[in-house]
Amino acid sequence: MRPIVLAFIAILTLDSFKEREEWTNLLDKDLTHWENYLSYKHKVGYNGNVPVDESGMALEPIGYNKDKGQVFSVIEDKGELVLKISGEIYGCVFTKKEYENYHVKLKVRWGNQKYDPRKNKLKDSGILYHSIGEAGAEYWRTWMLSQEFQIMEGHMGDYWQQSTSAADIRAYLPEGKMNSIASTKQPFLSFGSGTTEGYCMRSENHESPDNSWTTLELICFEDKSLHIVNGHVVMVLKNSHYKKDAKEIPLTKGRIQLQSEAAEVFFKDIRIRSIEALPEAYVSLFK
């Protein structure tokens, strides 16, 4: 019996190893999986135009990989590596690689600092996925064309379009209408470019209390995606696309950006894995 037991243990060990190995850790002390972009220190009253100096001359954004002020840094907290984003300047870290059909998981919590133009507003950041093209494509002249998994106090998992992106969403419906994403009766509604709304609220608030770490998951497969907060699906999206020359173009792969948006924020346990199908547990949400 001993050889059989040893073989069984070996199989279990191999399976556990494979399970661990299918996740790729995207956070190390040197941010080797990431590049960065910084635009401007935006001020209260910004109107979407290129910022100007006191003489009225247009200012240039700081640009790619010029983070001299350490807006983005890796610190150690209780033996764990943590990505610290100061938020002082609008910008992002973005993956060097493009991803398609994947599952991202990370943990987030807020720091204490806030900056203009959001000193009197909720702390804000985000996961921007299917990011393509150059940075500075949207209103704040900072981020790439992408879909946004909102990270905001009390609003983890909201949707925002970036530039001309759009999607059909099953999530929150106002005025007392059904807001359970599990209901197959709730229709998908169009948000983003070409619609009257570029924003959609998550179905429920599942942010961790007392600013403890909140676990966020983003699952993307083909044109579909799911925003998951502490294990709860809060938004169901399909038909991811963007507009160019009045044409709808599928938006199903790209880089991943983490935003610096006037609030200090921390990320850890940033992991990604490829998937070959939408997880079975979530298939019914799209029917």
TrEMBL record:
Q: Name one Pfam family in it.
A: 3keto-disac_hyd
Name this protein carries in UniProt = DUF1080 domain-containing protein
Question: Could you tell me which InterPro entries the record lists for this protein?
Answer: AL/BT2_dom (IPR010496)
Looking at the record, the residues that make up the 3-keto-alpha-glucoside-1,2-lyase/3-keto-2-hydroxy-glucal hydratase domain are: 22-273
